[in-house]
């Protein structure tokens, strides 16, 4: 016997709760994309922004309905999750990576020899029978594959701390277009904060030594409080586990123009690679609330020096939306290490990991410090004849300047190394 589900409905009698049966929603029927000319497999073609046959060259446009930021949002209720459309709209293969644990969705019939996240060849491909929550809207790819090489070449040319032969040895021609899952959140929030705020106080005191009044400054900590009333719109939280994809890189290729959102239809996903979310809604919202808290803290302490900060947040009118965003992903190996590169499929913005040539970095740091050390050495030697103290002072100044420059060079190298 099929279990009957019920939902709460509006009651005509005050104080009485009424439930009604939930009507069964028809399951999404998989669509088969077959060429009308030769019977071959059709797939979405990024170059023509339409359906194309990989055998006979047949092409057909895909009509999309642009909804932009008007795309519907959902409240945090179980009913909206249960009512959400499930399935991809076509039969697809499921890839499981034994190395990083990624679960990816591939077009049926596609052969995947390596994981696009970690470059491991320990992958298993099976026919997917899972009913994933399907996005109702997505942002289509606007960057064409033939334009990627120029974008990546320019990106590789930036920076001088990297190995000179990196661009030639890094095989970055195999970018994989992926639709990645994102949750977007919108909410009103109120934040009440309390903290000790530093105030610089100038006071006058009597100096017995000089027998005069002098002034001095001191820091005085005062308890203060305040309230913040604000809202966030379309806060993005990636639905991919951060152990598989570098969230820092994903953040760097933002923003996306969500005015480009179109209604989901299976044709847009035919022949394309997609990742179902593995970060559930509740966990994603916890991550989003953390970012909202950081925003509230930033507003609370703006222009202030504080300590012992406490902040309480209240959320209202929370809405969420599950969408697909376009990303080109490439993984390359250099000196036995694996690096990721990502390109925003809408804007072409690039972010990625590049190795550091530490020999080059340390030589530059040494070159920054050397003038100060040499000048100080000359000053010390000539000080025995009474003329070295000005030279010694100049050496100290040069060393301080060199240390500042060297510090920033090291921090930049470390930032690239630990992206």
Task: Provide the fold topology.
Elements lengths: L5 E4 L8 E4 L20 E4 L4 E4 L5 E3 L12 E2 L2 H6 L8 E6 L5 E5 L15 E5 L9 E2 L9 H9 L9 H4 L6 E32 L4 E27 L8 H6 L9 E2 L2 H4 L3 E2 L6 H20 L5 E29 L2 E8 L5 E3 L5 H25 L6 H29 L2
Parallel strand pairs: 10-15, 11-14
Antiparallel strand pairs: 1-2, 3-4, 4-5, 6-15, 7-8, 7-9, 10-13, 11-12, 11-15, 15-16, 16-17
Helix pairs in contact: 7-8
Secondary structural class: alpha+beta
Query: Which stretches are low in confidence, meaning pLDDT under 50 for 5 or more residues running?
Result: 24-31, 109-113, 123-129
Instruction: Write down the secondary-structure element order.
Output: EEEEEEHEEEEHHEEHEHEHEEEHH
Q: How far is it from the N-terminal to the C-terminal residue, by CA?
A: 54 Å
Number of strands: 17
Q: Please work out how many helical segments DSSP would assign.
A: 8
Oligomeric category: single chain
Number of domains: 2
Protein model, in words:
The protein is α+β, with helices and mostly antiparallel strands and 419 residues long. The chain has two domains: 64-189 and 227-352, no CATH class; 358-417. Helix content is 25%, strand content 34%. The protein contains eight helices and 17 strands. Strands 6, 10, 11, 12, 13, 14, 15, 16 and 17 form a nine-stranded mixed beta sheet that branches. Strands 3-4-5 form a three-stranded antiparallel beta sheet. The protein has a three-stranded antiparallel beta sheet with strand order 8-7-9, with no helix packed on it. The protein is flat and about 100 Å long. The chain starts with 5 loop residues before the first strand and ends with a helix.
């Amino acid at each position: 016997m099929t279990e009957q589900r019920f939902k709460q409905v509006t009651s005509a009698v005050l104080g009485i709760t009424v439930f009604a049966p939930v009507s069964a929603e028809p399951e999404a029927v998989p669509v088969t994309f077959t060429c009308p000319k030769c019977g071959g497999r059709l797939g979405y073609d990024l170059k023509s922004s339409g359906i194309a046959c990989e055998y006979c060259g047949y092409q057909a446009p895909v009509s999309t309905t642009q909804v932009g930021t008007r795309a519907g949002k959902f409240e945090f209720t179980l009913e909206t999750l249960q009512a959400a459309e499930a399935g991809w709209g076509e039969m697809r293969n499921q890839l499981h990576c034994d190395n990083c644990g990624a679960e990816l969705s591939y077009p049926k019939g596609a052969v995947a020899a390596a994981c696009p996240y970690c470059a491991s060849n320990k992958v298993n491909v099976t026919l997917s029978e899972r009913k994933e929550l399907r996005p109702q809207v997505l942002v289509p790819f606007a960057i064409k594959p033939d334009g990627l090489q120029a974008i990546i070449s320019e990106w590789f040319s930036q920076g001088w701390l990297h190995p000179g032969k990196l661009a030639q040895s890094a095989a970055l021609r195999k970018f994989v277009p992926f639709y990645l899952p994102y949750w977007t959140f919108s909410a009103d929030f109120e934040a009440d904060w309390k903290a000790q705020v530093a105030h610089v106080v100038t006071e006058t005191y009597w100096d017995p030594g000089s027998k005069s009044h002098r002034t001095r400054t001191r820091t005085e900590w005062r308890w203060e409080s305040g309230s913040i009333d604000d809202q966030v719109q379309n806060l993005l939280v990636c639905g991919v586990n951060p152990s598989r994809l570098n969230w820092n890189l994903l953040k760097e290729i933002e923003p996306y123009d969500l005015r480009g959102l179109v209604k989901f239809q299976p044709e847009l996903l035919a022949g394309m690679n997609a990742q179902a979310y593995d970060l559930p809604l509740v966990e994603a919202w916890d991550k989003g609330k953390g970012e909202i808290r950081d925003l509230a803290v930033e507003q609370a302490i703006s222009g202030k020096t504080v300590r012992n900060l406490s902040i309480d947040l209240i959320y209202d009118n929370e809405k969420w939306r599950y969408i697909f965003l376009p990303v080109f992903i490439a993984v390359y190996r250099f000196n036995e290490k694996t690096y990721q590169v990502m390109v925003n499929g809408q804007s072409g913005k690039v972010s990625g990991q590049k190795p550091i040539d530490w020999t080059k970095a340390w030589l530059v740091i040494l070159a920054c410090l050397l003038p100060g050390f040499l000048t100080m050495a000359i000053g010390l030697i000539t000080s025995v004849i009474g003329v070295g103290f000005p030279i010694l002072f100049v050496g100290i100044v040069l060393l301080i300047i060199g240390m500042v420059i060297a510090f920033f060079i090291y921090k930049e190298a470390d930032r690239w190394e630990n992206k």
